[in-house]
Amino acid sequence: MIRGLLLCAAVFWPALAGASDDRPPGPDAFSQPLAALSDHDRATVLLGNALFRKSWRAAPSETTASDGLGPLYNARACVDCHVGDGRGRPPETSDAAVVSLLLRLSPPDPVYGAQIQDRAIVGHRPEGRIAVRWKTRTVALQDGARVELREPRFRVDAPTYGPLARETRLSPRLAPPVFGLGLLEAVAEADILSAADPQDRDGDGISGRANRVWSRAQAREMLGRFGWKAGQASIADQNAVAMANDIGIANRLAPALWGDCTPAQSACRAGPHGDSARHQGAEVSDKVMGHLAFYLQGLAPPDQRNADDPVVRRGEALFREIGCAGCHRARLATSARHPNAALAGRTIAPYSDLLLHDMGEALADGTAEGQAGGREWRTPPLWGIGLTEIVSGAAYFLHDGRARSLAEAILWHGGEGQSARDRFAALDKPGRDAVIAFLKSL
Fold first, then answer.
1. Domain membership flag for residue 418
2. What percent of the chain stands above pLDDT 90?
């Protein structure tokens, strides 16, 4: 079985089969292992790659290693949302299929739970259909150029169990890229906290805050690092919740066999489940979850390209001058004490401080997560952002995919990002183009 998985993974991961590291970036640019991994660790990452692409089935099936899907779910495999290990895309129309964006519910709905599952196994009905309407407006820049911005209005059509509770808010969440997570997990906590300034004591208008969340994996409160609001402390925590809520696969850290189904959804709770004594009553073993975590720990961020191009260099200087680097921090350091030598004692360039920032009312979702408020979002890393379209076939940015270009993404910044946004809008076209060229080089 393991040999079959490895052969399958090699089909999707040609770089491990001898491809050159200096070739132009292609669709597998986000799926490369860290160069410093040992041969043994590379083999483990390769196995995790196959599991990341594994399509789960409804129980009972011919093997307990693959069943337990749902009964309600959003995707059958991790890769369904994180195509090429990259970011997802929102639906463009109300009748478009939704495959890499989900709707979080805040507070959790008494009937529908923590998120809307828009798919179901045979014999069950999805919770509803995710639909969107786009509202557009045009903003003028200082030199007279005009940029169209669009804002989504998401809704749940044909809700199976009746209307959502009146107080329930919808928070769309686009699937984020998953490369470089091991390096972010290895960043020394002190390095992250050194940039926090919740009271804005230096008066620069930027007051990054750390999120503190409960880690199921460590059974203690920890610094949040992952997710759009830094709501998960570790890769293991993030994986456990995603497997349970997105795919409906119970695991030791999220053991409910019915995933996100509430007591009001009795048919789902009574439905077929893939629990097995081999998995200590769960639907997936600790070993498989460990391989998945190690896969994400071992994916490398792509290197910057064209760093010496004069336009890129000017764009980098402007990126700092207009204030983007106040949140999108260029350098972080991983802990020298990390147990994996490939991750330890490294200086990395994620262009994120991993802190929460108030991004203004226009981007607010009204959803609290840990200590994050409804207007706060974790600074998303920018490494690899210029390869998004090459990997995913399209480029959508921000938590709900509203931005169709990097310029749109910048122009949506408010709150702590407002001054940097306004300075970008005040640049002449060559200056704006230089900033975008720099971002596309990452």
1. yes
2. 90
